[in-house]
Amino acid sequence: MTATANKNSLSLLEQSSAGKKKFRPSILLRYFSYAAVGITVFSLVSVVLFIAVRGASNISWHFLTGVNTHNAPTITEPIKNTLIIIGCSLLITVPIGVLCAVYLCEYAKRGNKIVKIIVLAAETLAGIPSIVYAIFGVVFFVYFLGWGESLRAGIATISIMILPLLIRSAEEAIKAVPDTYREASYGLGAGKLRTVFKIVIPAAMNGILAGIVLSIGRIVGESAALIFTAGTTLLRLDGGLSKEGATLAVAMYNFTNTFDKRDYAYSTGLVLLVIVLCLNILSAFIGRRMQGATDEN
Question: Helical H runs in 56-129?
Fold first, then answer.
C-alpha cells in the first residue's frame, strides 16, 4: 500500500510539473500581450496629451473661423479644404471600390485572369509610396490636363491613392458574409442582384465602413501628394474646386517650417485629431444603424 501510494504521488507530481511546463509559454505570451497593449495605450495617450497641451493654448474662435493674416493665422480654409477633399474623394471611390469588390466576389469566376490582374494591381497600388502618386498627379492632372495646382487635382490624386484600400477592404468584408445568407435569400426567391444589394452588402457594411475610416485617416494625414497638387496657400481664394488650397496636414507642414508659428502646428494637429475622432464616431454610428436594420429584416 505504501509503495502504491508513493507511486501515485510521484505520478501526480510529474503530471503537475509537466502541466507547469506545458502552460509556461502561454503565461509568457499573456504577459507579452499585456505589455504590448500597455505600450500601445501609453504611446497613444502620450501623443494625444502632448499635442493637446501644446496646441490648446492657440485654439480660439478666430483661429478656427477668422480671416487669415500674417500676425494671426487661421485654419478656416484648411478645414474647409480637408472636408471637401474627404467628401469628394469618398464620393468617387466608395461606389467604384464597392462595385469592384462585388464583381470580384459575386460575379467573377474563380481563376479568372481578369480577377488576378485586378487583385495584383490593387495590392501593388496599395503599397506604392504617396510621393509616387504626387509625381503622377503633378504630371497628369496639373500639367497634362492643365488643371494647375487646385483642389480638383488633389481630389483626383487622392481618389487614385485610396481606391486600392477600399477595394481590398470591401472585398474582404463581402467574403466574410456567410454563404447561408445568400442561400436563404435565393431560397425565398430573390435574384442575384437583389441578394447582393439587400443582403450581402448590408451584412458587410461594418467591414466596408472600416475601410472607409482607414481611407479617411490616410486622406487627412496625407501631405506629400497634396502639396504638389492641391497647393499650400492658406488664403481665401475664389474659384471652387479649381482654386488652390491647403489641407490641415499641409497647413501643419507650413507652420512647422515657420519658426515663429510652430505652436500653431500643434493646434492644427489637435483640430485634426478631433475631426478624425468625430468622423470615426459617425462611421461607427452609421454602421450600427445599418447592421441593426439588417438584423431586423
Answer: 61-65, 76-102, 113-126
Choose among 145, 146, 128, 144: nearest CA to 225.
128
Q: What is the pLDDT of residues 119-158, one digit of tens each?
A: 888 888 888 888 899 999 999 999 999 888 889 999 999 9
Residue 103 burial by Cβ neighbours in a 10 Å radius (0-12, 13-18, 19+): middle
Rounded Cα distance between 255 and 289, Å, is 40
Let me know if 136 is exposed, middle or buried by CB neighbors in 10 A (0-12, 13-18, 19+). Answer: middle
Q: What is the pLDDT of residues 17-71, one digit of tens each?
A: 555 555 567 788 888 899 999 999 999 899 889 888 888 888 888 888 877 776 7
Per-residue exposure over 213-248, b if at least 16 CB sit within 10 Å of its own CB, e if not: bebbeebbebbbbbbbbbbbbbeeeeeebebbbbbb
User: What fold, for 61-296?
Assistant: MetI-like fold (1.10.3720)
**For residues 273 and 51, is the Cβ–Cβ distance under 8 A?**
yes
Its pTM stands at: 0.80
For the chain, the domains span 2-58, 61-296
* Distance in angstroms (rounded) separating the CA atoms of residues 204 and 215: 17
Contact 101, 167 (CB under 8 A): yes
For residues 146 and 184, the answer to whether their CB atoms sit within 8 Å is no
Q: What are phi and psi of 29, to 5 degrees?
A: -65, -40
